[in-house]
């Protein structure tokens, strides 16, 4: 299984390198359209290779997606944490009740009762 993963990563690396070499032409990226930039007096643009733009977009999309899911699942993590706390509290209460129930009994019988 490990070799299959390494083979997949090698093929993925070869594909990414070939796409990068095929798309080396520079493209102009602008922050806002030129008509609006002239009105505001602020124009930011950068010239980057096309593969950087494409791969950067993919990476940005993955990061935004992971962040979005992490924030969306917050309530589930909070509920799980609350449930774990409640389970711990109930386990302590059960131990305390068993101890109170076994008071005055033989120690061996009390230990056996606590184990079950």
UniProtKB/TrEMBL annotation:
GO CC aspect terms: plasma membrane
Entries under InterPro entries matching the protein: LapA_dom (IPR010445)
Superkingdom per UniProt: Bacteria
Keyword entries, A-Z: Cell membrane, Coiled coil, Membrane, Transmembrane, Transmembrane helix
Coiled coil: 80-107
One Pfam short name: LapA_dom
Presence of keyword Transmembrane: yes
Transmembrane domains' residue ranges: 46-68
Residue ranges of every copy of the Lipopolysaccharide assembly protein A domain listed in the record: 45-94
Stated name of the protein: Lipopolysaccharide assembly protein A domain-containing protein
């Amino acid at each position: 299984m490990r070799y299959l993963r390494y083979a997949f990563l090698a093929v993925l690396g070869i594909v990414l390198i070939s796409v990068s070499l095929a798309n080396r032409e520079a493209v102009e990226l602008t922050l806002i359209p030129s008509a609006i930039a002239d009105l505001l007096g602020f124009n930011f643009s950068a010239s980057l290779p096309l593969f950087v733009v494409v791969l950067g977009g993919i990476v940005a999309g993955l990061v935004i997606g992971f962040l979005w899911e992490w924030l969306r699942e917050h309530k589930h993590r909070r509920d799980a944490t609350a449930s774990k706390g409640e389970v711990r509290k109930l386990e302590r209460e059960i131990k305390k009740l068993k101890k109170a129930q076994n008071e005055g009994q033989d120690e061996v019988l009390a230990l056996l009762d606590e184990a079950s």
